[in-house]
Write a sequence for this structure.
């Protein structure tokens, strides 16, 4: 059973648990994540779900967020403050909004979105999913500014995450390492300013490490691992928790060309045994 949610809901967690409408809880694993788009898919083994629980599960109908109009009704579903499932209503306040730290445009709604709503559905009046609740503006002077990822923008990414191999974390002793040091992430602001891709800026290559053996150069930017985008060192370290030393992974690495433009290529790296 595959469930779409936000990346910030699953990142940094040692274990994941999915609780269904009948209060049954089942352990889940990460299927795939995309940190720059704040999307994730988690997987629950069907054999772990009781038959009575399966009967309560319904698959949502996808809408078309490209066709939605400002002023249309909006319904936000989630687990606000962890009290259990809740529903709030409002309208679509705006389209094509931007927010610091998010790579893309968002739907704005005045339907109340609070901590715990993240990853929940934003529905239209027909009950179709038009967005995935992701954030709100929290300030004393602000009220009714919540944001959702447009489902039409998210669909292809979710499909890609669904098709990735289910991930399970390995022990710290078994974990593999790339063999780099990074003193700075290329954030979305820096990327826009210097025409660089977002990711992990490689400040130093460790002698004898996996990166050196693979030919990765200092000054390169790591943007993805096995197809999962990483927008910084935290996201990269999060992904490395799923791979053992000795495993070979594919890193997407951007390097600056003679014209200053960055060009991406895939590099196979056999992970090392320690951070060195």
């Amino acid at each position: 059973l595959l469930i779409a949610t936000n990346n910030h809901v699953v990142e940094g967690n040692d274990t994941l648990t999915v609780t269904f409408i009948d209060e049954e809880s089942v352990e889940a694993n990460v299927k795939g994540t995309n940190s720059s788009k704040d999307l994730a898919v988690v997987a629950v083994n069907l054999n772990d779900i009781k038959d009575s629980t399966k009967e309560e599960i319904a698959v949502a109908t996808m809408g078309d967020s490209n066709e939605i109009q400002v002023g249309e009704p909006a319904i936000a579903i989630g687990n606000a403050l962890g009290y259990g499932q809740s529903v709030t209503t409002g309208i679509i306040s705006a389209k094509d909004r931007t927010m610091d730290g998010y790579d893309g445009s968002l739907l704005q709604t005045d339907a109340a979105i609070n901590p715990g709503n993240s990853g929940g559905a934003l529905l239209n009046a027909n009950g179709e999913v038009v967005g995935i609740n992701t954030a709100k503006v929290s300030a004393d002077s602000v009220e009714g500014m919540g944001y959702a990822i447009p489902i039409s923008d998210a669909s292809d990414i979710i499909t890609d995450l669904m098709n990735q191999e289910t991930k399970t974390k390995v022990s710290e002793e078994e974990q593999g390492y790339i063999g780099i040091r990074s003193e700075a992430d290329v954030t979305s602001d820096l990327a826009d300013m210097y025409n660089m891709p977002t990711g992990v800026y490689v400040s130093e290559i460790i002698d004898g490490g996996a990166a050196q053996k693979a030919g990765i150069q200092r000054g390169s930017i790591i943007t993805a691992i096995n197809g999962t985008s990483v927008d910084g060192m935290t996201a990269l370290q999060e992904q490395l928790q799923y791979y053992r030393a000795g495993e070979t992974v594919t890193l997407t690495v951007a390097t600056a060309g003679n014209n200053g433009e960055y060009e991406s290529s895939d590099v196979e790296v056999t992970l090392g045994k320690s951070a060195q």
The radius of gyration is 20 Å. DSSP finds six helices and 18 strands in the chain. The longest strand covers residues 86-97. The chain has a mean pLDDT of 91.
